[in-house]
């Protein structure tokens, strides 16, 4: 008998808080394509200040934010270096090639972190045969690596190589605040070497819609044009920004709870025979584990879980991903562990 759905598929499933709904109801609105929505303007100001950048732009989604950033940094035919498991490379429909017309150059990192030497080696020297390498994309936290954080030092070192060769640096920081909270650093220190950053309001921060791109004023001016070109010029977007402001101002610190629950889940999973998990890799709110030793496929495991009201996703074969968020408490984790223990020991698949 399923009493409650425990949805661990993603932190994107978080619903807006009461305070967000109230803020949406009371938001002062205007036409944002004319730059006249006061709530959007307020959100962009707060976002730019928090990230230590000159300007910000509200976009519809993380995917759109990454794409407008790539469009704003590059010309068609340029090459973009990114980590081989980057979200931009795997999960954004190849928009960087299909729409921005750039060539991705994926490079394997260690737990999602690119080595400065590997980046330097991949940068094309000037030569009439080669595309121009003009952009380096980083990801913090790294989704497919399991929510791994890039430290300020790692970001600075790899960005120094990019700067030396005239490349711009963009951070896909969909979950950058998870990294800031986990590393206990001001988010500004995580993004200071980057020319642009995209972060999501609609993941762990619980806003219903929206992401933000930050960078220099001239970069954001270009990004604003690119957003319009992609159909992302929204009118009374203050109803989105109102919730985004609450997300930015009130929801960052509580990400700690999600990290504690993810760790609890990971440590419990490590004690279950047949589950393969590297607990040290669980640094934020993403937990990944392999079920091959249970003798089942990832998809069979997911459908067994769903009979108990627990939702998760498969990533690559028999690797399962669970993500903690505001809708998940300690009791949910304990129940999830009990169900997985039952599945593993009684072979309830
Ligand atoms: N990630 C989603 C799915 O697309 C997999 C998730 O559930 O984790 N960058 C990173 C690192 C992301 O994790 C995501 C979303 C995005 C960009 C795209 O954001 P949206 O979904 O707002 O387009």
Number of strands: 12
Q: What is the CATH architecture descriptor of the largest domain?
A: 3-Layer(aba) Sandwich
- The ordered string of helix (H) and strand (E) elements is EHHEHEHHEHEHEHHEEHHHEHEEEH
The gyration radius over C-alpha positions equals 21 Å
The fraction of residues in strands falls at: 15-25%
Structural class: alpha/beta
Biggest pleated-sheet summary: 7 strands, mixed
Tally of separate domains? 2
Number of helices: 14
The residue ranges in which pLDDT falls below 50 over 5 or more consecutive positions are none
Mean pLDDT: 97
CATH-level-4 superfamily name of the largest domain: Type I PLP-dependent aspartate aminotransferase-like (Major domain)
CATH class identity of the largest domain: Alpha Beta
Describe the secondary structure blueprint for this structure.
Blueprint: E1 6-7, H1 18-26, H2 38-51, E2 55-59, H3 62-73, E3 79-83, H4 87-90, H5 95-98, E4 103-107, H6 116-122, E5 133-139, H7 152-164, E6 168-172, H8 176-183, H9 187-191, E7 196-200, E8 211-215, H10 217-229, H11 238-250, H12 255-270, E9 286-290, H13 298-306, E10 310-311, E11 313-315, E12 319-323, H14 330-346
Helix pairs in contact: 1-11, 2-11, 3-10, 6-7, 12-14
Bound molecules: ligand TLP.
């Amino acid at each position: 008998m399923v009493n409650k759905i425990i949805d661990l598929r993603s932190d994107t499933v978080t619903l807006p808080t009461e305070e967000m709904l109230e803020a949406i109801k009371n938001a002062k609105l205007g036409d944002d394509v004319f730059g006249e929505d006061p709530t959007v303007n307020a959100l962009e100001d707060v976002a730019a200040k928090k990230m230590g950048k000159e300007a910000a732009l509200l976009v519809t989604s993380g995917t759109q934010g990454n794409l407008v950033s790539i469009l704003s940094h590059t010309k068609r035919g340029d090459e973009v270096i990114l980590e081989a498991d980057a979200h931009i490379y795997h999960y954004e429909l190849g928009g960087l090639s299909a729409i921005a017309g750039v060539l991705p150059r994926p490079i394997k990192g260690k737990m999602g972190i690119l080595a400065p030497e590997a980046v330097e080696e991949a940068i094309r020297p000037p030569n009439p045969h080669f595309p121009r390498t003009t952009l380096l994309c980083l990801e913090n936290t790294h989704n497919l690596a399991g929510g791994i954080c890039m430290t300020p030092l790692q970001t600075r070192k790899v960005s120094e190589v990019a700067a030396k060769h005239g490349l711009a640096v963009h951070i896909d920081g969909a979950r950058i605040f998870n990294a800031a909270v986990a590393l206990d650093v001001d988010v500004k220190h995580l993004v200071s070497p980057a020319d642009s950053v995209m972060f999501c309001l609609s993941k762990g921060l619980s806003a219903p819609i929206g992401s933000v791109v930050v960078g220099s004023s001239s970069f954001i001016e270009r990004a604003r044009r690119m957003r319009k070109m992609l159909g992302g010029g929204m009118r009374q977007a203050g109803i989105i920004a109102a919730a985004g402001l609450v997300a930015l101002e009130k929801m960052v610190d509580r990400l700690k709870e999600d990290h504690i629950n993810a760790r609890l889940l990971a440590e419990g999973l490590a004690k279950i025979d047949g589950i393969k998990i590297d607990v040290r890799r669980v640094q934020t709110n993403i937990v990944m584990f392999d079920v091959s030793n249970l003798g089942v496929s990832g998809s069979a495991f997911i459908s067994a879980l769903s009979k108990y009201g627990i939702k998760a996703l498969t990533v690559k074969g028999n690797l399962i991903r669970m993500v903690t968020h505001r809708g998940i408490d300690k009791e949910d984790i304990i129940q999830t562990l009990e169900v997985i223990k039952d599945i593993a020991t009684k072979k309830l698949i």
